[in-house]
Amino acid sequence: MQKYFFDVTDIVLYVRGETTISGIQRVALQVIKAMLKEHGPDRVMLSMWDQQAQVYAALDASFLEEMDEFDAVALSNVFFGKQRRHYETVPPLLARYRNNRLKYAFHLLRANLAALRRDKRFFEKRFTTLERWPQEKARARAMARDKRKAARMPEPVSQKRTAVADLISAGDNIIILGATWNLAPLYKALAKLQSEQGAQVSMMVHDLIPLVKPEHIASDFSDDFYEWLEGSTAYCSRYFANSQNTGRDLRAFLDEIGADHPIDVVPLAQDLGHKDPEPDPDTTAHMAHLVDQDGVRRAILNLTKTPYVLVVGTVETRKNPWRLVQVWSRLIEDRDIDAPKLVFAGKLGWLIEDFHAALNATGNLRGWVEIAERPSDRELAFLYKNCLFTAMVSQYEGWGLPIGEGLGFGKTGVVANNSAMPEVGGDMVEYCDAESINSIYAACRKLISLPSHREMLEARVAATQLRTWDDVAANFVAVLQTRRTVPDAEDLKSVAKGG
To answer: How many CA atoms lie within 13 A of 288 on its CB side?
Structure first.
């Protein structure tokens, strides 16, 4: 029986210092979880480059079956055997430093000194206020105390690791779903497993943005990305692409360097599986609302007191945040509509000085723009569930997870009509030109001012059988077993239409 080793090296390295996991890593974990459901832990394992032992190691994947939401704390427990602070047990201002004791202590001291000086600007720049700082500290202490009492987190136990070379047989699969650049020892290990033990190494390419849109990337990264992707042809048997658009970009690159590796298009999920459990008949609406809010920070709850449009993802230049802010500055001056707030949910990224300047100069558009930085899975689900609609007006995407995530919650959205995004949105969203403020404005205004149009799109969402992670896993298995592209052209036309 074929075995599947899913490489998680990038996730291991990432959770060593980060408090959340990225969209690409979320994709990998969802696929692995679906594969576990299909084949069980005897055939599906995790693999990683162990830097300390200098060996490519395998570890049991079954713990993922019990993980309802992908928490960097729980993953850190498994990979490193270290207990870490939960996101909720630190003040939001210090969340990014929670896994580094020295930095945490330093920035806590800075904040306390700023509070003593009554430095309001210090806290406003960090998306909180001087008045909220004592409350946030008190709440974090209470949460930490409650978690210690409840002992919700298991004792840190790192997984037993076995060299992949001792477990793998000819024809078994090593599947890389994440980003593994700048890891030369890993590449050598994969090449050896392929040449000496007959392993089939496959890699998912999520986008070629550093090559097709280098203006949105740090100057030296495009060269590194090119070298990494070119070098991968030495050990990869085939590639996966997460969309037709990415498949075309990858084919053009491989043709350019003279490589003829097969590319199998496996579109990602639209419905990401965030379903509410069946309601208890004895549960009142008020009680259900309280349960829905459990584990959501007060700052996040406060964002949902008035109608809002949700933008999910790292705030970076490619995501077009500056144009969205300009659109909202027009919408709030439009006396013929009741404009909602605009809420950005995600990490603050790079090359967004103009975005920061626009917000700082206008006081976050006089409060019409809010930022929910680094939300947890639970908080993100709460934001999706309560938003008016979503917006994703990126200048380029490999897929567009937030579009599908919104659809999974029954929400339509304003979506840019470029790259892979129409493959996700189908006929269930309102499209716009990402390069035109007028086009983005018109699409947003239409969904705001015409509830009947928004409800019509939501009805299409409800009537559509959205693509799920089980579908993705089934396609992966079919590709790995038959070496044909799955789904075929007709299937992809259906996906593009939202079917």
So the answer is: 10
Greater pLDDT, 339 or 2: 339
Task: Compute the radius of gyration of the chain from its Cα atoms.
Answer: 23
C-alpha span between 269 and 472 (Å, rounded): 6
The 3-state DSSP class for residue 346 equals strand
What's the rounded Cα separation, in Å, for the pair 60 and 47? 9
As a whole number of angstroms, the distance between CA 344 and CA 361 comes to 18
Under a CB-based contact definition with an 8 Å cutoff, are residues 200 and 174 in contact?
yes
Reading the block at residue 439, the tokens are: 């086009």
Give dist(CA 153, CA 486) in Å, integer: 40
CA angle 399, 402, 408 (to 5 degrees): 110
With beta carbons less than 8 A apart as the criterion, state whether 440 and 417 touch: no
| Separation between Cα atoms, residue 382 and residue 289, nearest integer Å | 10
CB 385 within 8 A of CB 379: no
Between 112-121, 131-140, 405-414, 428-437, the lowest mean confidence (pLDDT) is in 131-140
Among 111, 140, 139, smallest CA distance to 123 is for 111
Q: Are 28 and 4 in contact (CB under 8 A)?
A: no
Gap between the Cα atoms of 308 and 386, Å rounded: 8
Q: What's phi and psi for 342, nearest 5 deg? A: -115, 120
pLDDT in tens, 227-262: 999 999 999 999 999 999 999 999 999 999 999 999
Looking at residue 430, what is its pLDDT?
98
Distances, alpha carbon 469 to alpha carbons 28, 230, 416, 466, in Å: 10, 29, 24, 10
Amino acid found at 307: P
Q: Stretch 8-36: mean pLDDT, rounded?
A: 81
Q: How far apart are CA 273 and CA 263, in angstroms?
A: 27
H-type alpha helices, 16-129:
23-39, 72-80, 101-116, 120-124
What SS3 class is residue 342? strand
